[in-house]
Specification:
Layout lengths: L5 E7 L4 H16 L4 E6 L7 H5 L1 H4 L3 E5 L4 H7 L6 E4 L14 E6 L1 H15 L4 E5 L6 H16 L4 E3 L9 H9 L5 E5 L2 H14 L7 E6 L14 E5 L1 H16 L8 E5 L1 E5 L9 H16 L6 H8 L3 H12 L3 H19 L4 H7 L5 H12 L3 H10 L1
Parallel strand pairs: 1-2, 1-3, 3-4, 4-5, 5-11, 6-7, 6-8, 8-9, 9-10
Antiparallel strand pairs: 10-12
Helix pairs in contact: 1-9, 5-6, 7-8, 10-11, 10-12, 10-13, 13-15
């Protein structure tokens, strides 16, 4: 073998669009830089075991690209080595705990993925509620995507329902029943495309219309799946190709001697969101309602009234009321009230403020009106709600 030839182990799943795109990016970088690398592929976690990894030094392995998070025994052995290593989409860094040198973590930004899904829903202004469906196995990347989605929705004044499940297995009946209870229309973000297809199946079984009653967004934009679901699936596409290119680039740098004494972390943003029929097209009516909701979220603590919202929209009161009722299922006045009550609920949980102070901070000019509205909305008194929150 030529002295300049490098021996590289590529340990990640090639099934599915993400793996193929990463590999394409890796090969593209090799071709562009005319790199003479000898590649060994490991596709399943059972093959990436401790005995296999321990053989790397004597076999003259120069670099490793690792993306098999289930291969824990192999990862533990890999943490003991000093061979240049790229960890791709490994969000549980305890896998390589103790490894300080010659290690670069590269992955898609879960924050960007969750925010992209949330902003697409928000751009439509069509939904009464929002929800997140994680993967069944409870992977870290799924949790992080959900947290980013929830945070972006909260930043815009909306609460997100989260589907709770344990372990692997068939959960379609439970998922169907949960979706059926969500206020509609609802926008559902699923952790990845396969999970999104299960959401679509649950909607079909429940007789729910997608996208008019339930809209669905997945992640990965798997071209073998998304265009062929019923209806075709809107999906966020991480920049997997760029992740593969960076893996080759950083591996080359380390093998050329530019090594670090601490792990490096690189997050790659979203490439795009491919919009298909599982989400409704953005309409002028949707944008109008979204502008109204944004204004209410920003000014609910002030003495605003429906006419103030209409003035901000620069449309007639009749048109604003009609569109808001059609798309949100409530009046502008009710939306203002509900925004204020949600703020009251949060203050009851997070502060010890008096009810008088809470009323002033949340846009109510009378405490009694706030008490009555809270009880009607949540079917519990403010006093009892605060007590229950503290006990929890």
């Amino acid at each position: 073998m030529d002295q300049d030839t490098k021996r590289i182990v590529l340990a990640f799943r090639l099934a599915g669009e993400p793996g193929r795109r990463k590999l394409d990016g890796f090969f593209r970088y090799m071709a562009d830089h005319q790199l003479d690398w000898q590649l060994q592929f490991v596709r399943i976690r059972e093959d990436f075991n401790a005995e296999f990894v321990a053989s790397f030094p004597e076999r003259g392995i120069d670099g490793i690209v690792f993306s098999l998070p289930d291969a824990r025994d192999g990862a533990e052995e890999l943490a003991r080595l000093d061979i240049p290593t790229i960890a791709l989409d490994i969000f549980d860094e305890s896998l390589l705990h103790g490894r300080k040198r010659n290690l670069v973590f590269i992955g898609g930004s879960c924050k960007d993925i969750g925010q992209t899904a949330a902003r697409h829903f928000l751009s439509q202004g069509l939904y009464r509620s929002y929800a997140f469906v994680p993967d069944l196995a409870g992977h870290t990347w799924s949790r992080l995507r959900g947290e980013a989605f929830i945070a972006e929705m909260a930043h815009n004044g909306f609460k997100t329902a989260v589907y709770r499940t344990r372990g692997k297995g068939y959960d379609l009946p439970k998922l169907r029943a949960w979706i059926n209870k969500l206020p509609r229309p609802v926008g559902i973000f699923a952790a990845f495309d396969d999970r999104a297809t299960q959401v679509l199946e649950a909607c079909r079984d429940a007789g729910l219309d997608v996208p008019h009653q339930v809209a669905v967004i997945g992640v990965d934009n798997d071209e073998m799946i998304c265009p062929h679901t019923t209806p075709p699936l809107t999906s966020v596409q991480p920049d997997h190709t760029r992740i593969g290119e960076l893996a080759a680039e950083k591996l080359q740098e380390m093998m050329d001697g530019r090594r670090s004494t601490r792990p490096e972390r690189i997050l790659v943003g979203v490439k795009r969101i491919e919009v298909r029929q599982s989400t409704s097209p953005v309409t002028q009516s949707g944008r109008l309602v979204q502008r109204a909701l944004a204004f209410i979220t920003a000014h609910y603590a002030e003495p605003i009234r429906p006419q103030d919202v209409v003035r901000e929209l620069k449309v007639s009161r009749r048109l604003a009321d009609l569109r808001f009722s059609e798309l949100q299922g409530e009046s502008i006045g009710k939306a203002i009230l509900h925004a204020r009550l949600e703020a009251v609920r949060k203050m009851l949980t997070a502060t010890n403020d008096t009810f008088e102070n809470i009323a002033a901070a949340c846009g109510f000019n009378k405490v009694d009106r706030m008490r009555t509205a809270f009880k009607a909305r949540y079917d519990i008194s403010m006093h009892d709600y605060r007590a229950q929150s503290r006990s929890r």
